[in-house]
Structure formats: structure tokens, C-alpha cells
Amino acid sequence: MRLSKPRIEPVDLDRLDADQRAALEPFFATDGGRVGDGRILNIFRTLAHAPKALTAFLGWGNYILSRRSALSPRNRELVILRTGWNCRSGYEWTQHKRIGLDSHLSEDDIERIKAGADAAGWSELDRAMLRATDELTSDHFVTDATWAALAPLGDKGRMDLVMTVGQYTQVSMILNSFGVQVEDGWTVDPDLRA
To answer: Which residue, 37, 76, 138, 184, has most beta carbons within 10 Å?
Structure first.
């Protein structure tokens, strides 16, 4: 976590204006974006200060996390976790570590994501996806060699990888800069604490 307290406090769900309520309506109607006890995640409660932006953000984010993306859930989470690690986003890493485990990444895989593409045990495609993520988060460009190594994903898969890294770089910037704190009971990786 970059900050130990929020710069922008999450909205109070008992004091929403009409625009905030409309933007958060998907969370009241379903259990998406809620933690186990039904609370709406701090990221969404924080973004509700800009309700029209939250609505647009949710639309794009829903594509990235959906089956419409050519990336398998495992590959998507591999890329998201590496992006969160590279951006030093404690919130992102904490949230997506749980999702990654549910998407067939092992605890060992998640630990190796920290070391990146050169860690032992990755497939060639895993290495290429991790390398592409590193290139995008450091230079905002995928090199020709890495692009070629991503060929098994196909053109749409490569596009979805770039868009996923872009989305989660933005998410990490939001979380880090706004000081969004993890939900009560979550534990931030010690390597990502302030």
C-alpha cells in the first residue's frame, strides 16, 4: 500500500445522492463487487464520488473480466497480478490474488509472478505474457520478439492482453493515488506495504 489512509474517503452508503445511487445500483441488485458480508468494495465506494466515471469504468472493466475477452481467467489473472505488482498496488494485488487462486493459479505461481518471466517453472506462453506485461508497464510497448511469442493467443488475445494491462495500470494508479484501503480482514502482502 502506498498510503496508510485514504486521500478520498469511500462514500457513506447511507448518504448517497441520486447519481451515486444510480452508479452503485448494480451492486445493490447483485452480489458482484461485494465482499462476503455484502459490503460494496472500497474501490467502488471511492469511485462513486465521480458517478458518471464509475459507470463508464464498470462497463469497460466488465468486458476485461468477462468471457468476451480472449484471455482465459488464469491468463487474465496472471497479467493482472503482474501489472499490480509492477505498479506496487497493494490493493490490486490483494484482491486479485484471491481471484487468481480461484482461476487456477497456484500459490507457487502467485509467488513466482513477483519474480517475473525469468522465474523457473513458467511455460513459454506464460513467460511471453509476463514479459509483455513488463514491457507495457515500463515502456508502454510490446517488442516484436515478445509479440511473436504471444502468437498462441491470436490477434484478439494479444489485443485483450494489452487492453487488460492498460486497464489494470489505470486501476492501480487510481488505487495508489486515491489511497483506497483494503477491506477489513484482508492482508496486504508484506512486500507491498508502505
So the answer is: 76
Integer Cα distance of 165 and 57 in angstroms: 15
CATH number at residue 153: 1.20.1290.10
Q: Tens digits of per-residue pLDDT, 55-93?
A: 999 999 999 999 999 999 999 999 999 999 999 999 999
Print burial letters for 46-79: b (CB count within 10 Å at least 16), e (below 16).
Answer: bbbeebeebbebbeebeebbeeebbbebebbbbb
* 34 strand-pairing partners: 40
Write out the three cell numbers for 157. 488475445
Enter the C-alpha cell of residue 14: 447511507
Grid coordinates in use for 125?
Answer: 506462453
In a domain, 166, yes or no: yes
